[in-house]
Amino acid sequence: MKEHKPVLLIETVELLKVKENGVYVDGTLGAGGHSMEILKRLNGGKLIGIDRDMNAIEIARKNLRDFSNMVTLIKGNFKDIKNILSEVGVDMIDGAVLDLGFSSIQVDDPERGFSYQNDGPLDMRMDKDDDLTAEEIVNTWGEKELAEIISTYGEEKWSSRIAHFIVEARGKRKINTTGQLAEIIKSAIPARARRTGPHPAKRTFQALRIAVNSEIDILSDALKNFVDVLKPGGRICVISFHSLEDRIVKQTFKELENPCVCPPDLPACVCGKEQKLKIITKKPVLPDLMEIENNPRARSARLRVAERT
Ligand SMILES: C[S@@+](CC[C@H](N)C(=O)[O-])C[C@H]1O[C@@H](n2cnc3c(N)ncnc32)[C@H](O)[C@@H]1O
Ligand SMILES: [Zn+2]
């Protein structure tokens, strides 16, 4: 397998409660790590793997070649799950996995522009057919808009200074590369604040990646779409990698578990909104210390699982 270590692999697939003749969707195929583990448990069932990155589809196709008769791989955005399923003639599914964010394969390739450690073009698109790139955001968005995404999506407290430094720098010379941007960010954060914590560019790069790929905007609706196509008893397992993402997963699950919007003093529900989910993981499942030691990317991972009622 090409190197992307699947996070919370066994925990996820066990909580998915795979039925051997079921139909499953991996909405974030990547290198196919989670898919492979699902496929090993199938006998007569099938797996639909989706990724918006054509390169991931090609890598997964190779990694999953032993199961090719049970797999359908599709380039697409998991938010469009309903259309994707109708295109392949599937009505309802027995379970789904979403392992959000980017893969090591994407980050490790400097040409993709995700990395603040290796110089490359400021791209960050998961789907090469999308129009918006990090270069466009960094060079054309207003200072206020930049500060806002860096603050919200990056949870970066130096967001205003970083946005200001970016606007100053691009006034002198267009910002084309990840290396250039990482230097600008570094210069915006005071030295004493740089001494502790992660790489100074980590949060801003996360923010840009989320903005380029609309990762946060689509999440809640995408989860609801998945729940609509789950058979009763079918489960959805979602792994997130930062608190913003995890909060959306938690809130969306809660909303679907208890959707009633009636005032609390009414004796009975009249809004007619029905429960669609039962939350299986009251608290998120976290990786154990051994996994974190072997895979630094697992450090912030959280798995939440819910079941269609
Ligand atoms: C963390 S990786 C998945 C790794 C995979 N579980 C494995 O074990 O190999 C996330 C993958 O999801 C894809 N992705 C992210 N958002 C997506 C979306 N909205 N629709 C489809 N794919 C998406 C990325 O391109 C990336 O390949
Ligand atoms: Zn109600």
Count of alpha/pi helices = 14
Annotation, overall tally of beta strands: 7
Radius of gyration: 21 Å
Give the CATH superfamily of the largest domain.
Vaccinia Virus protein VP39
Structural class designation: alpha/beta
What form results from the Cα inertia axes?
A: globular
Question: Could you say what the CATH architecture of the largest domain is?
Answer: 3-Layer(aba) Sandwich
Q: Would you state the CATH class of the largest domain?
A: Alpha Beta
| Strand arrangement across the biggest beta sheet | 3-2-1-4-5-7-6
In the CATH hierarchy, the third-tier topology of the largest domain is known as Rossmann fold
Q: What is the average of the pLDDT values?
A: 96
Helix share, percent: 40-55%
Describe this structure in words.
The protein is α/β, with parallel strands linked by helices and 309 residues long. It has 2 domains: 9-105 and 216-308, Vaccinia Virus protein VP39 (Rossmann fold), CATH 3.40.50.150; 131-212, DNA polymerase, domain 1 (Orthogonal Bundle), CATH 1.10.150.170. Helix content is 43%, strand content 14%. The protein has helices spanning 9-16, 33-40, 54-63, 81-87, 104-108, 134-140, 143-154, 159-172, 178-188, 191-194, 202-212, 215-229, 243-257, 289-294, and strands at 23-26, 46-51, 71-75, 93-99, 230-240, 277-279, 302-308. It has a 7-stranded mixed sheet, sandwiched between helices. Strand 2 (46-51), helix 3 (54-63) and strand 3 (71-75) form a beta-alpha-beta unit. Zinc ion binds next to loops.
